[in-house]
Amino acid sequence: MTYVVTDNCIACKYTDCVSVCPVDCFYEGENMLVIDPTECIDCGVCEPECPADAIRADTEDGMEKWVAFNGKYAALWPVIADAKEPLPEADALDGQPGKLDLLFSDKPAAEAV
């Protein structure tokens, strides 16, 4: 079993989950996070930490596509090990339907200067 990040993280990018992850298996895109399903140790500490309720166990119905999605972008994006501020529009966009089609960016997080 593994945990995965779903579409409600898009345009929110809360990082409360990152600060509790014991294996640094979160990866950061421009406007969301993903979990590397091969690195996740199934401890579950991240799930209750997500204010957007965007983290799910892969055993829930319909999670197969999210396992593949998380795996794909974890291979492309940089690891994130420290918490950051959420995106400015996080509260307003939390729970908005259709974020994958409307708002998702496949770009990696911007490099810190």
Automatic annotation (TrEMBL):
Cofactor requirement: [4Fe-4S] cluster; [3Fe-4S] cluster
UniProt keyword annotation of Iron present: yes
Keyword match Iron-sulfur: yes
Signal peptide interval: none
Residues in 4Fe-4S ferredoxin-type domain copies: 1-30, 31-60
UniProt keyword terms in alphabetical order: 3Fe-4S, 4Fe-4S, Electron transport, Iron, Iron-sulfur, Metal-binding, Repeat, Transport
SUPFAM superfamilies linked to this entry: 4Fe-4S ferredoxins
UniProt-recorded Gene Ontology molecular function terms: 3 iron, 4 sulfur cluster binding; 4 iron, 4 sulfur cluster binding; electron transfer activity; metal ion binding
Pfam families the record matches: DUF3470, Fer4
Function: Ferredoxins are iron-sulfur proteins that transfer electrons in a wide variety of metabolic reactions.
Name of the featured protein: Ferredoxin
Source species of the chain: Puniceibacterium sediminis
Organism classification: Bacteria, Pseudomonadati, Pseudomonadota, Alphaproteobacteria, Rhodobacterales
